[in-house]
Amino acid sequence: MIFDCDGVLADTERDGHRVAFNATFEHVGVDLHWSEADYATKLQIAGGKERMASVLTPEFVAENHLPTDPGAQAEMIADWHRYKTARYTQMVADGALPPRPGITRIITAAQDAGWQLAVASTSAEPSVRAILTQAVGPRRAEAFDAVLAGDVVPAKKPAPDIYQLALERLGADRSRTLVIEDSRNGLLAATAAGLRCVLTVNGYTRDEPNDEAVLVVTSLGDPGGETTLVLANRGQARPDAFVTLADLRNCLE
């Protein structure tokens, strides 16, 4: 099983990454603040550095007295992104971004059952490892078979590259591998790699097209906690109040 990070392991985008981006813009002294609506648009761009670079129009560069040379701009964006990653990682360490319902339970059950597990994310690796550790603790996070993040592949989602790399690293059979994603970009990346995909949507992604997903739910849910609402089911799983490991296995049938 291969997990995306942001929006899957934790609901990180609105109150995590967006906040850290805005703190970075304030820190470097540029006149920019992303509202929730602004950030919904930026989420269509995979990768934090790429989202930052998307603001570098000639007008924005001139107004904020930024470098015009492409090389200098790339170095500047890398600096901004390092600061942003540090701010975000501190937020995770402070417990500001708890795991989504069902994540700790499913990862624990899957590891105990001998499943190979990986994370495949376009976020920076320190951010991903921080979220994973917050969700399942250091021992289980370190037991993951692969954590692929950031610029580990040149083409980011919706390109399938990161999932193809995950398959290679795991030595996994496509027909026996399931992806857990939250967005259309991730869904397209997974299915382009020939993988079945379960979507656990959030407020930013609930209304995106999902025809390629085998199962679409509001969350994995937890006994005694948030319950699962099934939005679409095109497979053999029959989840009730929460999604079980058996349900996810049935998504491969």
Automatic annotation (TrEMBL):
Record's protein name: HAD family hydrolase
Signal peptide region: none
Superkingdom of this protein's organism: Bacteria
InterPro entries hit by this protein: CbbY-like (IPR044999), HAD-like_sf (IPR036412), HAD-SF_hydro_IA (IPR006439), HAD_sf (IPR023214), PGP-like_dom2 (IPR023198)
Pfam families: Hydrolase
One GO MF term attached to the UniProt entry: hydrolase activity
NCBIfam families hit by this protein: HAD-SF-IA-v3
PANTHER family noted in UniProt: CBBY-LIKE PROTEIN, XYLULOSE-1,5-BISPHOSPHATE (XUBP) PHOSPHATASE
Keywords: Hydrolase
